[in-house]
C-alpha cells in the first residue's frame, strides 16, 4: 500500500512538473571524444553545440527546452553501437549528429533504425553508409564513389593529363578509390600507363624508375598520407616534378612534413572543406574561437551544418504536428524530405536513401608545403 | 622502346637495388653475428636498428640549426647511434637472453619477439611524448642532391655516369661508402684481432673456449655490442636513404634482412652481405617485371608489378633452401658424435 501511495505522489509531482516547466528536447552527437581521433570528434561536437546555442531561444518560444548530449564512440564500431543503444533508450533524444567514421556509422545507424532515431552524418563517405537505404541515415558530405570521378576530372580538365600513372596502397580504401579513378579516366580515353599496388612504406625506387621511363603527365596515388608522403619525397629527390594527386587519405598536415622539400605540386580531393573555403564561415570561426578557445576546422563546420539540418528538421516536424513536440518518426521523415537553408556549406536536401542531392568536393593543392584550396567540384550521388 | 632507353633504365634499377641491398646487408650482419655465436635469432634486432634510426633523427634535428659541416653531423649521428644501439643490444642480451641461455631453443626465440614488441612501444612512447610519430630526417643541404651534379668539381664524371643510367644521389654514394667501411672494420675486427679470435672460439665451442680461459659471457656481450652498433649504423643509413622512420618501421626491413642472412648462409659475414645485395637487386627487378612483360608481349609477366617485390624475395629464399639448404655461402654443421 505504501509503495502505491509513493508512486502516486511521484506521478502527481511529475504531472505538476510538466505543467509548469517546458518539455525537454535533446539532440545527441556521436563522435570520438577520446583516443587518437578525439581532436576531430570534439570539433564535430563543438560545431553542433554552436548550432544548438543559436536555436535555443527559438525552441524556448515553442515550449521546448533544447539540449545537446555528447556521446563518445572512441572511433570504435562496438563502442559506437553501445552508445547508440543508450541514445535509443533516452526518449527525449529526437535525432543524432554523427559519426566521424563510416565504420562506426554503419552499425550505429543499424542500432537506431528500429527506434526511428534519425542520424545526420557530417563526415562519413563510404558508399555503404547510405547504400543500405535505411530510413534514418543521412549525410551532408560527398560519397566515395564521387571522389574517384572527381579526381579523374581534375586530372584531365585542370592538370590536362593525357597519360596517368596509377598507384594504390592495396587496402580496401586505396584500391577501391583508384579503381573508380581508372574507370573514369578510361571513359575519357586517357591513357593509363601504369596501374599497380604496393604495400611498401619506405623504398619506392623500382616504381620511381618505371615512372621515369613512362613519363606520365600526372600520378594518382590512392592511399594514406604517411605512405604517399614518403613516395613523394623520394620522387622529388629523383628529380621528377610530375603532379601527384590522391583522395582524402592525403588530407593531413603531416603529408607536407613527411614530403619535406618535395611537398609541392600535390593535389587531393577532400570532403571536409578548410574553414576559409566556406564563404559564410567567418563569423562561425570567430564564434567558435570565442566559445571553445580553439581553432575551428572543417569538421566543426560540418558538425554545425549537420546539427542545423537536425534542428530545422525538428522545427518542421513540430509545425506539421500541430505545434506539439514531434515524435521521432515525424522528425525522421521531416529530415529526409526537407530542404535546409542558412548552412555554411550551402543548402541541403536529401535523396531517397539519404545522400545529399548536391554535395561539394574540395581539391586542395600543396605548394612549397602550404595547403590552399584549388577547386571546388560539385558532385551528385548516382541516385537523385 | 629501344635499347638506348632500356639499358639506362635497367642500370638504374640494378643500382637502386644495390643501394637498397647495402642497407639490408648491414642489418643482416647484426642477425648473423648473434646467430653465429649463440645460434639465436635476435628478433629484437629490427628494433635495435630502429633505435639507431631514431637516435640519428634526434642528432640531425638538434644539429640542424648549427652551421657545422654536413659530413661531421653525419659522423656524430653514426657514432651516437652506434653507441646507443650497441649498449641497448648488450642490455637486451643481459636481461632477456642470458637468464635463458640453457633453456630450450624455442624459449629465447619467443623472448626475442617479446622484447621486440616492448621496444616498439617504448620508442613510440618516447617520441609520442613530444608529439611525434613519423620522424622526418632533415638532412644537410646537398645530401639529397645528385652525385656529381651541377656546380660540383666532378660534373663530367656525373654526366658520364648518367648517360649509362647510373643516376645516383649524393646520399646513395655516402650510404655505399659507409657500408663498405663498416664491413672492412668488422672484417678486420673478427679476423685479425684477439677479440675476434676469442669471439670465433666461443662461436665454435663455448665450453671448450671457456676451458681455454676465454670468458664466454664477455665475448657474447662484445658480439651483441658489435651487432648493435651495426644496427645503429644501418638505422642511420635507413633514415638517410628513405627520409622517414617511425617506431614500427623496423619490421619490414628486419624480416627481409633476416631473410638475407638466411639466404647468404646464416652465421657467415660475407654471406649476409651477398644475401642483402641479392635481395635488394631481386626486389627491384621484380618491381619492374611488368615493363619487360609489356615489351616482350608476355601477358603473364605484365601483371607482375611492385606488389610482388616481397613475395619474389621469399620465393628466391625458398628455392635456395630447397637446393642449397645452408644458404649461398653457409657451411653445413657436421655434428660430431
Automatic annotation (TrEMBL), chain A:
Name of the protein in question: Branched-chain amino acid ABC transporter substrate-binding protein
Domain Leucine-binding protein: 24-369
N-terminal signal peptide: 1-21
Entry's Gene Ontology BP terms: amino acid transport
Similarity-based family: Belongs to the leucine-binding protein family.
Entry-linked CDD domains: PBP1_ABC_LIVBP-like
Record's keyword annotation contains Transport: yes
Taxonomic superkingdom: Bacteria
Record key words, sorted: Amino-acid transport, Signal, Transport
Organism: Deinococcus terrestris
UniProtKB/TrEMBL annotation, chain B:
Subcellular localization(s) per the UniProt record: Cell membrane
Alphabetical GO biological process terms: D-alanine transmembrane transport; L-alanine transport; L-isoleucine import across plasma membrane
Single Gene Ontology MF annotation: L-isoleucine transmembrane transporter activity
Gene Ontology terms: cellular component: plasma membrane
Keywords: Amino-acid transport, Cell inner membrane, Cell membrane, Membrane, Transmembrane, Transmembrane helix, Transport
Membrane topology annotation: Multi-pass membrane protein
A UniProt-annotated Pfam family: BPD_transp_2
Family as reported in the entry's similarity comment: Belongs to the binding-protein-dependent transport system permease family. LivHM subfamily.
Entries under PANTHER family matching the protein: BRANCHED-CHAIN AMINO ACID TRANSPORT SYSTEM PERMEASE PROTEIN LIVH, HIGH-AFFINITY BRANCHED-CHAIN AMINO ACID TRANSPORT SYSTEM PERMEASE PROTEIN LIVH
Full protein name: Branched-chain amino acid ABC transporter permease
Amino acid at each position: 500500500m505504501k509503495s502505491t501511495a509513493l508512486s502516486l505522489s511521484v506521478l502527481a509531482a511529475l504531472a505538476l512538473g510538466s505543467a509548469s516547466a517546458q518539455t525537454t528536447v535533446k539532440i545527441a552527437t556521436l563522435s570520438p571524444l577520446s583516443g587518437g581521433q578525439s581532436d576531430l570528434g570534439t570539433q564535430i561536437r563543438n560545431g553542433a553545440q554552436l548550432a544548438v546555442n543559436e536555436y535555443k531561444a527559438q525552441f524556448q518560444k515553442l515550449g521546448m527546452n533544447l539540449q545537446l548530449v555528447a556521446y563518445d564512440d572512441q572511433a570504435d564500431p562496438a563502442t559506437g553501437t553501445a552508445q547508440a543503444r543508450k541514445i535509443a533508450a533516452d526518449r527525449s533524444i529526437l535525432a543524432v549528429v554523427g559519426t566521424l567514421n563510416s565504420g562506426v556509422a554503419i552499425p550505429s545507424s543499424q542500432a537506431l533504425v528500429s527506434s526511428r532515431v534519425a542520424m545526420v552524418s557530417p563526415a562519413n563517405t563510404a558508399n555503404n553508409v547510405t547504400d543500405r537505404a535505411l530510413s534514418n541515415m543521412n549525410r551532408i558530405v560527398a560519397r566515395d564513389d564521387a571522389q574517384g570521378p572527381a579526381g579523374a576530372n581534375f586530372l584531365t580538365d585542370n592538370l590536362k593529363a593525357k597519360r596517368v600513372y596509377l598507384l594504390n596502397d592495396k587496402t580496401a580504401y586505396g584500391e577501391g578509390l583508384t579503381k573508380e579513378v581508372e574507370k573514369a579516366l578510361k571513359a575519357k580515353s586517357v591513357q593509363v600507363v601504369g596501374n599497380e599496388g604496393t604495400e611498401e612504406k619506405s623504398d619506392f625506387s623500382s616504381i620511381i624508375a618505371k615512372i621515369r621511363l613512362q613519363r606520365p603527365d600526372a600520378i594518382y596515388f590512392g592511399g594514406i598520407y604517411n605512405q604517399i608522403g614518403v613516395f613523394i619525397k623520394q620522387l622529388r629527390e629523383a628529380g621528377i616534378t610530375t603532379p601527384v594527386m590522391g583522395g582524402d587519405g592525403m588530407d593531413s598536415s603531416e603529408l607536407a612534413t613527411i614530403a619535406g622539400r618535395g611537398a609541392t605540386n600535390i593535389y587531393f580531393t577532400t570532403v571536409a572543406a578548410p574553414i576559409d573555403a566556406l564563404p559564410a564561415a567567418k563569423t562561425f570561426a570567430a564564434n567558435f574561437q570565442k566559445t571553445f578557445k580553439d581553432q575551428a576546422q572543417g569538421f566543426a563546420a560540418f558538425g554545425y551544418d549537420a546539427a542545423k539540418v537536425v534542428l530545422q528538421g525538428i522545427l518542421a516536424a513540430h509545425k506539421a504536428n500541430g505545434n506539439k513536440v514531434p515524435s521521432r518518426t515525424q522528425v525522421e521523415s521531416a529530415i529526409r524530405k526537407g530542404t535546409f537553408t542558412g548552412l555554411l556549406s550551402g543548402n541541403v536536401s536529401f535523396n531517397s536513401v539519404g545522400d545529399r542531392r548536391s554535395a561539394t568536393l574540395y581539391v586542395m593543392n600543396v605548394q612549397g608545403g602550404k595547403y590552399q584550396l584549388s577547386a571546388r567540384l560539385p558532385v551528385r550521388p548516382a541516385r537523385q | 622502346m629501344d635499347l638506348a632507353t632500356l639499358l639506362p633504365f635497367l642500370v638504374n634499377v640494378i643500382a637502386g637495388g644495390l643501394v637498397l641491398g647495402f642497407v639490408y646487408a648491414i642489418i643482416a650482419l647484426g642477425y648473423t653475428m648473434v646467430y653465429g655465436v649463440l645460434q639465436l635469432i635476435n628478433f629484437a634486432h629490427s628494433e635495435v636498428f630502429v633505435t639507431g634510426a631514431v637516435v640519428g633523427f634526434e642528432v640531425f634535428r638538434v644539429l640542424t640549426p648549427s652551421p657545422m659541416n654536413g659530413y661531421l653531423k653525419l659522423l656524430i649521428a653514426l657514432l651516437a647511434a652506434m653507441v646507443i644501439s650497441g649498449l641497448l643490444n648488450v642490455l637486451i642480451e643481459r636481461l632477456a637472453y642470458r637468464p635463458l641461455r640453457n633453456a630450450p631453443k624455442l624459449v629465447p626465440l619467443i623472448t626475442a619477439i617479446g622484447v621486440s614488441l616492448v621496444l616498439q612501444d617504448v620508442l613510440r612512447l618516447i617520441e609520442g611524448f613530444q608529439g611525434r610519430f613519423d620522424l622526418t630526417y632533415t638532412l644537410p643541404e646537398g645530401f639529397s642532391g645528385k652525385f656529381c651534379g651541377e656546380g660540383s668539381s666532378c660534373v663530367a664524371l656525373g654526366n658520364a655516369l648518367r648517360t649509362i643510367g647510373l643516376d645516383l644521389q649524393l646520399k646513395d654514394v655516402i650510404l655505399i661508402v659507409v657500408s663498405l667501411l663498416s664491413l672492412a672494420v668488422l672484417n678486420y675486427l673478427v679476423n685479425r684481432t684477439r677479440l675476434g679470435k676469442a669471439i670465433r672460439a666461443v662461436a665454435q665451442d663455448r665450453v671448450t673456449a671457456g676451458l681455454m680461459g676465454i670468458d664466454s659471457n664477455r665475448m657474447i656481450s662484445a658480439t651483441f655490442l658489435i651487432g648493435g652498433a651495426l644496427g645503429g649504423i644501418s638505422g642511420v643509413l635507413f633514415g638517410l636513404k628513405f627520409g622517414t622512420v617511425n617506431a614500427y618501421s623496423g619490421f619490414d626491413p628486419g624480416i627481409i634482412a633476416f631473410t638475407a642472412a638466411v639466404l647468404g648462409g646464416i652465421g657467415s659475414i660475407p654471406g649476409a652481405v651477398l644475401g642483402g645485395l641479392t635481395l635488394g637487386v631481386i626486389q627491384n627487378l621484380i618491381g619492374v617485371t611488368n615493363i619487360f612483360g609489356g615489351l616482350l608481349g608476355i601477358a603473364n609477366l605484365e601483371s607482375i608489378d611492385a606488389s610482388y617485390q616481397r613475395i619474389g624475395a621469399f620465393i628466391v629464399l625458398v628455392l635456395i633452401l630447397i637446393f642449397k639448404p645452408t644458404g649461398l655461402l653457409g657451411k653445413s654443421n657436421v655434428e660430431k658424435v
